Amino acid sequence: MTRAGFYPISSGKITFGRDGHWYCDGEVIPNAAIARLFSRALEVLPDGRGRLALGEDTAWVTIEDTPWVVTTVDGSPVQGFVITLNDGTTEPLDATTLRVGAENVLYCRVKERHPARFLRPAYYALLRFAEPAGDGMVELPIGAGRAVRLATPVE
């Protein structure tokens, strides 16, 4: 693998990992600028396959879980929450799309239709506003009198 920080996109197997890191032939791509470029250039085709398109160069991407991950959460239940994705974009969190998946991983919808996995720091930032609701559930207050119910992690 190239060590100078340049990754010809057709030179190896490119993977976007569930941990939010980009990999080339199984090794993490340590250059944050390259990782951000790959995240911004990622296209998800209607059949769910991932593809990088940089100029005339394209490469298929193996997406381990979701095409984007939530890296940070800002805001509050009163003003609403804004999430930042690994490609540097921000958008309001549509709390109605929150769901708890396997292994207690939190997900939401982003970019109007794609699932995004919450990385642990973003998950903790959001769930600090949660309130116990009983029956193994918590409620995340949103606005005036509304709440989203979520399953609590199993310890």
Give the biggest beta sheet: 6 strands, mixed
Q: What would you say the CATH architecture of the largest domain is?
A: Roll
Number of strands: 15
Tell me the distance between the termini: 40 Å
In N-to-C order, the SSE pattern is: EEEHEEEEEEEEEHEEE
Report on the structure:
By secondary structure, the protein is mainly beta. The protein has two domains: about 50 residues, Roll (duf1285 like fold); about 80 residues, duf1285 protein fold (Roll). The chain is about 10% helix and about 45% strand. The protein has two helices and 15 strands. The protein has a six-stranded mixed β-sheet. The longest helix is centred in the first third of the chain and has 10 residues. The chain is elongated and about 50 Å long. The N terminus is likely disordered.
Which features does this protein show?
six-stranded mixed sheet; 12% helix; mainly beta; 2 domains; 2 helices; 155 residues; duf1285 like fold; duf1285 protein fold; disordered N terminus
